[in-house]
Design goal:
Largest sheet: 5 strands, parallel
Mean pLDDT: 92
Number of helices: 11
Strand order of the largest sheet: 7-6-5-8-9
Number of strands: 9
Helix content: 25-40%
Low-confidence stretches: none
Length: 314
C-alpha cells in the first residue's frame, strides 16, 4: 500500500495513488463498521489524543469512534478549559503533550498553519482535523469516498462546490483532491464569498446557480461560516437562500442522477432545502457521516504502520 507520510496535515502533499490507498483501506473499514463486531487491533497499545481548539461535534466524535474501534487508548482534551486559556503557547502545550509519549495527535485549530507548527514539535503522528481556512484533509477524503461509491469512479466528473468558498477549508481541500483526480470543478457563490485569485486553482467560477449547476454530477453545498465573517458578506440569509440555496428547482439544472452533499452542520433553509437534504434518492449527506469514521480509521491505521516501521528501524 502506497502511503509514506509521517503526518496527515493536508491533501496538497498527497499523490493520487496515496489518495487511492486511503480510500481502498477505508472501504475495508466500511465493511467492518457494518459488521456485528466492529473492532480491530490496528492501533492496539497506541495512545490517541484529540485536541480540539474549536468546537466540533461530528468530527471529534468520528475520530474518537475511529480510534476506539481500532483499539487505541483515546483521550479527548477540552482545550477551551486548558492551560491555553491561562496563556500557555501552542508550542508549550505541544512540548507538554510530547512528554506524555502519545502516538497519534488529532488537532483542530482556528489558525491556519497551527497544526503544521505543532507537528514540528512532537515525535508522534499528527492528523489535521481542520486548521483555520487552510485545510481539512479527512473531510475531503471522506467526500471522495462518498463520491466514488455513489458514482463508481472518482475521475472525470463535473463537480460543483457551492456557497461560502472564501472561508471554507473544506472547499480548499476538496478543490485540491478533486483536481488531482482529474475532475472538472466549478465554484458557485456570490463574489463576496469567493477568494481572490481562485481561478488560478484551475476551476470555473460562477455567480449564478442555474448556469453553474448545468450538467454536473455532484453538487457539494457548503455551510455559511458566520463565525469567520467580520462584515456584510451577504445582504440577508433570506436573499442568500433565494439566490444560492439549493432547492429542487436549482437542482433540476444538474444531471438527473446528480448527488447532493454537505459537510455539516447544515443551516436548513439557508444553504439547502430541508426536504432535499433528506431525500434518500439524491442526498448522500448521511453517507458522508458514515464514510467519515471509515476514512479516519484508514488514515490513522496507515500513519500507525509508518510510525511502527520507524520505531522498528530504530
Amino acid at each position: 500500500m502506497t502511503f509514506t507520510h509521517r503526518h496527515l496535515l493536508g491533501i496538497e502533499h498527497l499523490r493520487p495513488e496515496e489518495i487511492v490507498t486511503v480510500l481502498d483501506l477505508a472501504e475495508e473499514y466500511v465493511d467492518l463498521n457494518r459488521a456485528a463486531q466492529k473492532h480491530s487491533d490496528a492501533l492496539a497499545g497506541l495512545t490517541q489524543i484529540n485536541m480540539f481548539f474549536e468546537n466540533s461535534t461530528r468530527t471529534q466524535a468520528s475520530f474518537e469512534l475511529a480510534g476506539k474501534r481500532l483499539g487505541a487508548d483515546v483521550m479527548n482534551m477540552a482545550m477551551q478549559a486548558s492551560s491555553i486559556t491561562k496563556g500557555e503557547t501552542l508550542i508549550d502545550t505541544a512540548m507538554t503533550l510530547n512528554a506524555m509519549h502519545p502516538d497519534l495527535l488529532v488537532v483542530r485549530h482556528p489558525h491556519s498553519g497551527a497544526v503544521d507548527l505543532l507537528a514540528q514539535k512532537v515525535n508522534c503522528a499528527v492528523l489535521n482535523a481542520g486548521d483555520g481556512r487552510h485545510e481539512h484533509p479527512t473531510q475531503a477524503l471522506l467526500d471522495a469516498l462518498t463520491i466514488r461509491r455513489a458514482k463508481g469512479r472518482l475521475h472525470r466528473l463535473n463537480i460543483a462546490i457551492c456557497g461560502d468558498i472564501a472561508h471554507s477549508r473544506v472547499a480548499r481541500s476538496n478543490i485540491i483532491l478533486l483536481g488531482k483526480m482529474e475532475n472538472r470543478i466549478r465554484l458557485i457563490g456570490p463574489p463576496t464569498l469567493m477568494p481572490a485569485g481562485i481561478a488560478e486553482f484551475g476551476v470555473e467560477v460562477y455567480d449564478d446557480m442555474a448556469k453553474g449547476l448545468e450538467d454536473v454530477d455532484v453538487v457539494m453545498m457548503l455551510r455559511l461560516q458566520r463565525e469567520r465573517m467580520d462584515g456584510g458578506f451577504i445582504p440577508s440569509e433570506r436573499e442568500y437562500y433565494h439566490r444560492f440555496g439549493l432547492d429542487a428547482d436549482k437542482l433540476a439544472n444538474a444531471k438527473p442522477d446528480a448527488i447532493v452533499m454537505h459537510p455539516g452542520p447544515m443551516n436548513r433553509g439557508v444553504e439547502i432545502d430541508g426536504t432535499l437534504a433528506d431525500d434518500i434518492n439524491r442526498s448522500v449527506i448521511q453517507d458522508q457521516v458514515e464514510m467519515g469514521v471509515a476514512v479516519r480509521m484508514a488514515a490513522m491505521d496507515l500513519l500507525a504502520r509508518n510510525l511502527r516501521s520507524v520505531q522498528g528501524a530504530a
